[in-house]
Write a structure and sequence with these properties.
Mean pLDDT: 93
Largest sheet: 9 strands, mixed
Strand order of the largest sheet: 4-3-5-2-1-6-10-11-9
Strand content: 15-25%
CATH topology: Carbamate kinase
Shape: globular
Number of helices: 8
CATH architecture: 3-Layer(aba) Sandwich
Order of helices and strands: EHEHHEEHEHEEEEHHEHE
Length: 239
């Protein structure tokens, strides 16, 4: 099986909002366990996995600004939300017998170990899932930027963005029935078309460092395994 794997080290970006499932907020145990099962499956195949999760199911810094929060404090609250989700995923993985460790971008021991490239890589090489919470550790940056940064730092073969749609379209497929899906697209074409794949800081970071991005539907069970085996799933953004 190891010889069949196309992507042997991946950084998986998960949406905090997706963790809500059908609820209005919080964490859906069904969604969390589904994600954990799919991650466990590829780890068992020998894939090294790092994960960054958003915090929008609990708190978003920008939404806090609209309610009178200072932006910096709001973003810090959002960072804490990502750590809550990270610990939740760690618990779900460990409950399934998959080793995992939570790292944080800001000092938060004993909640999570402070992130460093060497420690995270060491864990991944020993079969642990390295979950990195806290965003970049700085305000004004999204978890998209954090996932791009960590994918590059950890020398991942691919940055996977798990969403609730099955790729990148010419328009929002939930609003425009005529929207068509790209199987692959270059960074430059995606930018010129104004496609909202990631925030511009994250997108530029990936382009400058030639980090390919694959947007796919994480809620479709089996997609993650199919991707690491090299099957055509979602939309690949590349040079």
């Amino acid at each position: 099986m190891n010889n069949m794997i196309k992507y042997k080290r991946i950084l998986l970006k998960l949406s905090g909002e997706a963790l809500m499932g059908d609820a209005a907020y919080g964490i859906s145990p069904d969604v969390l366990n589904s994600y954990a099962e799919q991650i466990k499956e590829v780890v068992a195949m020998g894939v090294q996995v790092g994960v960054v999760i958003g915090g929008g199911n609990i708190f978003r810094g920008l939404s806090g600004v609209d309610k009178g929060f200072d932006r910096v404090k709001g973003d810090q609250m959002g960072m804490l939300a990502t750590v809550i989700n990270s610990i939740g995923l760690q618990c779900a993985l460990e409950g399934k017998g998959c080793k995992a460790r939570t790292f944080t971008s800001v000092f938060m021991e004993p909640v999570g170990e402070s992130f460093s490239k060497n420690k995270a890589l060491s864990c991944m090489e020993r079969g642990y899932v390295a979950i990195i919470g806290g965003g970049t550790g700085n305000p004004f940056f999204t978890t998209d930027s954090a996932s791009a940064l960590r994918a590059i730092e950890l020398e991942a073969n691919l940055l996977l963005k798990g969403t609730r749609v099955d790729g990148v379209y010419t328009a929002d497929p939930e609003k425009d029935s005529a929207a068509t899906k790209f199987d692959s697209i270059t960074y430059d074409e995606a930018y010129s078309r104004g496609l909202k794949i990631m925030d511009l800081a994250a997108f530029a970071l990936c382009k400058d460092n030639a980090m390919p991005i694959l947007v796919f539907n994480m809620n479709r069970v089996g997609n993650l395994k199919r991707i690491v085996l090299g099957e055509a799933v979602g939309t690949l953004i590349h040079r």
